[in-house]
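Annotated sample (chain length 52).
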Amino acid sequence: MQHSSYLERRGQIEAYFDRTAAKAWERLTSDAPVGRIRATVRAGRDQMRSTL
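Output written by the structure step:
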C-alpha cells in the first residue's frame, strides 16, 4: 500500500513541476516583464540566438 501512495505523490509532484516549468518557460521566452535574474537569462538566450 505504501508503494502506491508514493507513486501517487510522485505523480502529483511531477505534474506540479511540469506546469510550473511550462509557465516559467512561457514567461522567459515572451516579452513579459521578468525579474533581474530571468532578464539576464533572457539576454543570454537572445545573445546565443544572434550568434547562431
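Annotation: The helical segments are 2-28, 36-51.
Annotation: The chain has a mean pLDDT of 88.
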